[in-house]
Amino acid sequence: MGSLCLQPLFLRILYIIGRIINIVKFVVPIVLIIKVAIDMYRHVINPEDKEGLDKIKNKIIASVIIFLTPTIVSLLYSFIEKTIVNYEYSDLTVCREFANMEYITELENKIKEIEKEDADKKRESYLNNYEQMVEEIRLIVANKHDDNTDTNTDDNSNDDSNIDDNIQSVVTNDKGSLQTKKYNNWNYYLYIPDSAKTSSKPLVVFLHGSGEKGTDISKLENYGFAKYIKKEKKDYDTYILMPQLPSGNESWDTSKLMTLINKIVSENNVDRSRISISGFSLGTVAIPSLIEENPRYFSAIVFIALCTDGNSKVSYFRNTPTRLYHGGSDSACKPSHSQEFADALKKNNGNVNLFILPNRPHNIVNDVFKDGKVISWMTAQRR
Asked: Hey, what CATH class is 162-380 in?
């Protein structure tokens, strides 16, 4: 199983711990408060008793500490997750949300049922579906404050531009279709291969550079997948998501971006083990934080003209195949950015390859993706 949240025994342990904490949180302070009241009464009767006053102080402090136990435990979980984020135990926060008897019982029953049938394929299929539930809970946990953030934007919440899945147009090719859609004030292209009707397919996410920001999504046709699909009529055997960053935004909102990615994944026949991401120029800036916030989510990463110093986050890339492409004559984002990142990742035993294209300028997206070899490499990687 890919996640500890799919282990019934682990979930039961978390469930029991949670119940114990709730009992301790309320019962013990009440008992201590009663004892404090008794001690205070005794102190009023006998004000000379210094030892009794110390007992009262100690019990009040103990009550406060015990009442704050859930907060202390949450901080401890967060510390553990940040310290060993590259391992399975980084799912602790999500698993706590998942640890209730309804999910645990359902999971146990389904696993027993599948084991009786001795059907490995059915078991794998079911666990993949259950993994989807885990991902949805992970999304809720990670973005539980997003609603308040979105309402504080300058956009009118009643404006039609905020309607989810407002399909604007569809372009059909021989083996797929490119939909122009809108989500939470972001325009985006979604390419859907016809083959996804019969089997799950990978998802490739591509983040454009600063020149394509705005409300006119046709800007994305300047290069890359949108150009290949719309103007050159190319087909792909994978989903391709291409969001557009609105004007006035200096960088991608990683929480909002993950919300969109998870939405696409949950609503389509996406192979969850093959979700890769690539960014060009400005599009590379958000990826280190995205990988840090969502460890083990992506199966492959491709940087094109890296424009950020992500060296402090290389440990989060250690288990994900990564490629960096940079034009040797790039004056906008120096090739040294990619070189330093690749060197740092190698020191962390990362799976990384750096490709410097001699005498090539800043925008080398077409050099990278034109022949289809790189996207084939991306979709072949699994997590």
From this structure: alpha beta
